[in-house]
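job 3f2a | input accepted
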Amino acid sequence: MIALTVAGLTLREALRRRVIWALLVLTIGLLALSAWGFSKLIGLDTELGTMTSGEARLVASLLLNLIMFGFSLIAAIGTAFLAGPTLAGEVESGQALAILARPVRRSAVLLGKWLGLLAFGGGYVVLAGLAQLLVVRAAVGYWPPDPVGGLGLLAAQTVVLLTLALLLSSVVSPMASGIIAVGLFGATWVAGVVGGIGGALGNEGVERVGTVSRIILPTDGLWRGAMNAFQDPSALIQMGPGEGGFPFLSEAPLTVAYLGWAAVWVAMIWGLTALSFQRRDV
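job 3f2a | predicted structure (282 res):
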């Protein structure tokens, strides 16, 4: 009950800080621009001739991954910079003392903040992603093979990052925790691209960079699973050998073992956050 109350307060704080309204404006702008762009694909004149509806759907599946990455990036920045103030900020300002002075377990407060951020970040990527899928369907008639799985993995990616941001906010300042979390998110994505290029070139050492980074921080691994769920299955065949170097194509869906590791990773980081928050002076 206490956790749900704190979750509600966290969402109310996001609304008070106008984060939700800022995301809404950004999302509507991105949806409008993408709708205009996708509507121009069919019949587009290229060097290879006029683009047919089938070619347009294939291109749309690649562009869809690009736009979905934009939504996941917006969600990552939003949740990372919201997680810092909601924990470290309240401790530094003394607001946390007003709650923790009562007979309330710190783990319940932390769980409530985690649930509130999960509802915020996960809800955003699911709703914005679903709106984007409907835009693509209306513009070029393309519908991904596994939209539910793809949106679920995008939400899971957000959960991983917000959990990391909460851990960082329990030990460093709010601003630093947001910067570090977003920086690690970007670095892991770059490492994944480098690993894909290494795989396309047959260089196992470079390919291992992406593999190791996806184990240390599962955001890029979950993102690649989401891309595989959104892309046209024939895209890999059309791109031909060496497609692994293209950053917005994924070769295979995620394994159950990797999804299990991502769940264990979140549980471990959450446990470390609870331990750190328990020992912190307020």
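job 3f2a | The two ends are 23 Å apart (CA to CA).
job 3f2a | closed
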